[in-house]
Each structure stands twice: as structure tokens, then as C-alpha cells.
Amino acid sequence: MIVDVIHPGRPNVSHKELGEKLAKLYGSTEECVFTFGFRTAFGGGKSTGFALIYDSLEEAKKVEPKYRLIRHGIGAKGIISSKQRKERKNRAKKFRGTKKAKAATAGKK
Amino acid sequence: MVSKSKSSSSSDAEKFLESIGVSTNSDHQDVSPELAKAVKSDAPLLVKSLNSLIESITSTKSKLNELKERIRSETLPTSKGVSLLEVKLHSLLSYLTNLSFFILLKLQGHSTAAGHPALDKLIELRVVLEKMKPIEAKLKYQIDKVVKAANEADGKGASKGSASGTVVGWEGEEVERKGVSEYELQAAGVSDPLQFKPNPRNLVGAMSLDPTAPTYQDEPGSGVYRPPKIAPTKYTEDNPKKKSQLSQQTRESLSKSRLFRDMREAFDTARPEQVTSHGTGYGLRELRDAKDEELQKIEDFELDNYQRLGATRDRNKREKAAIRRSGTSGIVDEMENLETDFLHMESLDRAVSFDDKQRYGAGLLAKRNQRAEAVFGEGDESGARKRKHMGDADEMLRFQSKQFSSKTGYDKAIRKMTRPSHKKRK
């Protein structure tokens, strides 16, 4: 659904707060409500975005893209810093196949 | 061969088919219903083609008789060896005979398997004809010329029965012209049939054909010289590269800048101020330009597809170009453009000082004149003082750009900075 939020005097509303409000409105739990794409209109006071409400968390996990699940707290991000990623890759270069995964994590220590 | 029925209705077709022993009823035991149906459908077409065949045969027969007479009277020399045209003639004839034999075989129901000698002969002749085609194409000009000469000569009054036609063998052999003089041929516009080199006189020229067509000069005494149109050339209005400090582009971009627009507003009181109602919501129709439309489209897409579109490199480029073209966009950050505004002010400052110099003179004299004007106001212009009155800021700029020479490094630097940004060399 498209959600128009009117918040005069406030910068904008957080995802969590929006989730709570929507859950109450539509009789769901806030863990099944996913919000994204909010843009505040020029001048402030109003923002427009999208929200999706699922029947259960299991279904949400199946459908939603990874980044939205991470925002919700499900799943974790991998290594973010590029230097660490490159080091990991270079460690894994020495091996072939499944041993790569072992080497990538083991070599750190 | 068969009854010459001019109409090709289906009843005739049936009659014809029965006459050659093919039954169209499906009652007959030997004939399968599909076959009968196919035969029935093709029958009118067959009749039509047979009729045309008969007609063409009769016409060729008459022509052949004529040709036979000619050969018998020995007016066509065939003693000098086999020429291309003769080969073609004979191969076509034998192709015809073989083809007719082939058709006969088909009609009578004999098998026409691949190894049949008639078929072999047909294929061979076909190959020969195909190989002759390119050679014919090369000779086309010569043959056409000769045929044309023959036709013209025929029409010019030589007797029809006599051999007024010319025969050209392979590689241009003896030409026989009985009863046709060289003069007649030239009058026919062919000149010498043996001359196969390109003839420029045959080209249709504007001068020779149409005496009323306009020549290079209108009249001998008109005095208007019209140069001959040989090749298209570019037309340039003025001298292309004037060494002016402010080029046309710079001037345009300067005139569009916010600073000058503000100044124009303040000083050019004769001009009424123009403000667009775009975005205000007033007016008969809400004004929407291309940018508005684009934004609306993006908005619609986003809401329909539940996804936000980010700014792409392509869109950013277009936006920047539009801003540069328009001079200012709707909402402009003043601080951003302060630097360029000050640079623009340089040229304006110089223009003002130049005008002052013109108006008041230089140095101490200028001060005195300025004070005098302040006290006594604008008197009438004395003839001695050359005062140049400018209409508005634009004119002032234009004047100073014409007069001002920029030889110093400072001037060059300023010029570089006031150039449009995409030409900047970093």
C-alpha cells in the first residue's frame, strides 16, 4: 500500500513507529509490517512511502528482499569494510572448492 | 491440338478434360476423389494457359515464316562463324522443342524421371543461356544501338522488304546497310553505328535542347552577374571570427544570468517586468513544462510499481544541460553562483568605466564633469563633447565588447572565466 504520513513540526517518522501504527490499524503484528521508500515532501510535514503487511513472518522471510529483512533485524549483514573483504578473498585464493570457506574464516585467527 | 475455346469457364474446362480422357466424376473407380477435385480446380487455369500458348505459337509461326524467307533469299549472312546471337537463337529454339516434348510426355502420362534425355538436354541449354546473360549485358549498349538504328532507318523511308536492318556479328563485323545512307542514320541521331565509344553529343544538355531555358547571364545588357552554380558552398554572413573579447555565446550567457536580469529590472524601467505564473496555481490552465511532465511521470511510475527511482547519471546530465541552457533554474542557491556573478561583474564594471570615460573624459577632467553634472543636471548636449548614449545595459555591454581590446593577461584570464563552463579547460 501507499502510505501518506502527515507529521507537522517533526522531521519524519521512523520505520519502527510507522510499523507499530500500521499494525494497530490493520490488526497485525509489527514484525509483519515492512515499510520502505519514504520521501518527505518539499517544505516538510508530509511524507509518502510504501508499506507491505504479511500474514506471517515466515511468509515475509520467503518473499522480502534481504536488505529489508536486515533492516527489520532478521539476518545479519556480511563484512562491510572493503579492506576486510579483500583480505578474505586473498586468503581464499590459496585454496580450491569447499576448503575456501574454511580458509576464509580460519585465516583470520 | 484441342478445341479453341476462348472462354475459360469451368464447363469448358470439363469438356476439355473429358476430350483428353480424364474423368472428373468421382464415380469412376480409378480416380480418387481428391485427385478429381484437384484436377477440377486446376482445369480453368490449364485452359487459360493453353490458350495463351496457342496464341503465342501462331504469332511466332508467322514471324518464323518471314525469317525463313529471308534466309532463303540469302540476305542474312551466316558465313562468318558462330556469333553470340546465333548461339542464343539456336539454343532457345532447341529449348522450345525440348520443352514441348517434355509437356507432351507429361500429358501422356509417361514418366519424366531425372535421367530422361529430354530433361538432360533442357538442363544443358538452361546452363548455356544463363552463362550468356552476363555477356549479353556487356553487349547491351551495342545491340541496342544497332537495333535502334535499324528501327529508325526502317521508319525513315527505306523499304520494308529490303534488308535495311544491320547485322552485327561478334566483335563488330561487317555492317550491311542496304538502302540506308549514313546521312539518314545521322539524322536519326545515331551517327555511326560502329562507333561504340561514349558520345557526349547524345547527352541531353540544357543549352542545346531548350533555347528558352535560363542561361548563365540573364541578358547581355542587364548588368546582373549571376555566377555559375558549380558546387554548393557555405554562406557566411559576416567575418566569422571577430577578435572580440566577449563572443556571441558569452554575451548570450551573460545576458541570461541572474545578476544581469536583476540589474535590468532595476535600471531598465521602460521594460515591463515579466513574471511567469508557473507554479502559482493561477491562470486559465496550469502551466506545465517538460520538467513538470517528467517529474509527474516519475511520480506515477513510483507509486504504481512500489519502488523509488534514484537519480541516474543520464538524468543528471540532462538536468545540468537544461540549467545551463536556460540560464537559471527555478530555485537557485544564491551562494553557489556568487563567484560567477562577481566575474560577470568585472566585465560590467569595465563597461561602466568605459562609458564614464567617454562621457566625462579622463582623470581630473572627469571628476570635474561629474561634479558639474551632479550640480547642474543633464544639460543639453554640446557639440564639442562626444557623448554616447546607451539604451540599456545590454547595449552598453555590446558596445564595450566591440571596442575593448584584450591584450593583457588579466583580460585573458577574465575571458577564460566568463566562458561557458563546458568549454573550461582544467
TrEMBL record, chain A:
Q: Where is the composition biased (Basic residues)?
A: 83-109
**What's the domain of life for this entry?**
Eukaryota
Q: Name one Pfam family in it.
A: Ribosomal_S24e
Does the record carry Ribosomal protein as a key word?
yes
May I have one GO cellular component term?
A: ribonucleoprotein complex
Enumerate the Gene Ontology biological process terms: translation
Which InterPro entries does UniProt cross-reference here? eRP_eS24_sf, Ribosomal_eS24, Ribosomal_eS24_CS, Ribosomal_uL23/eL15/eS24_sf
Chain ranges passing through the membrane: none
Annotated SUPFAM superfamilies = Ribosomal proteins S24e, L23 and L15e
What name is this protein filed under?
A: 40S ribosomal protein S24
Q: Where is this region: Disordered?
A: 80-109
Keywords attached to this entry: Ribonucleoprotein, Ribosomal protein
- Tell me the GO molecular function terms: structural constituent of ribosome
Q: Which residues form a coiled coil?
A: none
Keyword Amino-acid biosynthesis recorded = no
Question: Which family is annotated?
Answer: Belongs to the eukaryotic ribosomal protein eS24 family.
Automatic annotation (TrEMBL), chain B:
Q: Which GO terms describe its cellular component?
A: small-subunit processome
Query: Superkingdom, according to UniProt?
Result: Eukaryota
In this chain, the stretch annotated as Disordered covers 209-255, 403-426
The biological processes this protein is annotated with in GO are: maturation of SSU-rRNA from tricistronic rRNA transcript (SSU-rRNA, 5.8S rRNA, LSU-rRNA)
Record InterPro entries? Sas10/Utp3/C1D
UniProt cross-references to Pfam families, sorted A to Z: Sas10_Utp3 (PF04000)
Biased-composition ranges, Basic residues, are: 415-426
PANTHER family named in the record: NEUROGUIDIN (PTHR13237:SF9), SOMETHING ABOUT SILENCING PROTEIN 10-RELATED (PTHR13237)
- Name it: Sas10 C-terminal domain-containing protein
